[in-house]
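Q: Please design a sequence for this.
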C-alpha cells in the first residue's frame, strides 16, 4: 500500500506547515491498529493524548483562586533597625584591625628586643659602623684608574677626613 500522502503530511508537520485538520488526519492514521513498520516509530507522538491520562490539570476555578489570593490585602510591618545594629559589621571590622595592629606591634617589639648582634656580620646589622665605607673605597679605586691619564692620583686608602688627592 502506498503511504505517499501520509509521508507528505509528516514532512509538512516537521516543517510546521500543517493545519489542524491535517494534524487530525495524522492522529487518526496513527491510532489505527495496522501501521507500516517504517511509520510505526511516529505512533507514540500522535497517540499521546489518547494513551496518557490527564493529570495535573488546572481546574475551572483556577483563575478565581489566583485572583482571590492576589486581591487579599497583606499587612506588612516595617522592621525597625537601630543604628548600633546597622553599624555592627563596621565595629567588628574596626576591632579586628585594632587587634591585628596591636599584635603586630607586640611581635615587632619582642623580635627587636630579643636580637643579639654577637656572631652576626656587621653588614647584617641595622646600626651604622664606624670607619671608612667599603663602597666609597671601591668607587675611589675605579675613579683612580680612569683619571690616571689626567695626572691626578687618588690614594686608595681612606684617612679619617676623607680621601686624599695628590697632584
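A: Design:
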Amino acid at each position: 500500500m502506498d503511504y505517499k500522502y501520509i509521508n507528505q503530511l509528516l514532512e509538512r508537520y516537521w516543517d510546521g506547515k500543517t493545519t489542524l485538520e491535517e494534524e487530525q488526519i495524522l492522529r487518526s492514521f496513527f491510532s489505527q491498529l495496522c501501521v507500516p513498520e517504517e511509520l510505526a516509530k511516529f505512533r507514540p507522538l500522535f497517540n499521546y493524548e489518547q494513551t496518557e491520562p490527564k493529570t495535573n490539570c488546572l481546574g475551572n476555578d483556577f483563575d478565581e483562586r489566583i485572583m482571590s489570593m492576589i486581591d487579599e490585602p497583606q499587612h506588612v510591618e516595617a522592621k525597625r533597625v537601630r543604628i548600633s545594629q546597622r553599624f555592627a559589621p563596621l565595629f567588628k571590622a574596626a576591632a579586628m584591625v585594632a587587634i591585628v595592629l596591636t599584635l603586630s606591634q607586640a611581635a615587632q617589639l619582642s623580635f627587636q628586643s630579643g636580637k643579639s648582634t654577637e656572631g652576626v656580620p656587621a653588614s647584617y646589622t641595622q646600626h651604622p659602623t664606624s670607619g671608612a665605607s667599603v663602597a666609597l673605597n671601591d668607587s675611589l679605586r675605579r675613579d683612580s684608574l680612569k683619571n690616571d691619564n689626567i695626572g691626578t692620583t687618588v690614594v686608595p686608602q681612606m684617612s679619617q677626613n676623607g680621601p686624599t688627592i695628590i697632584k
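Q: Thanks. Anything notable?
A: The first helix runs from residue 4 to 15. Strands lie at 153-159, 162-166.
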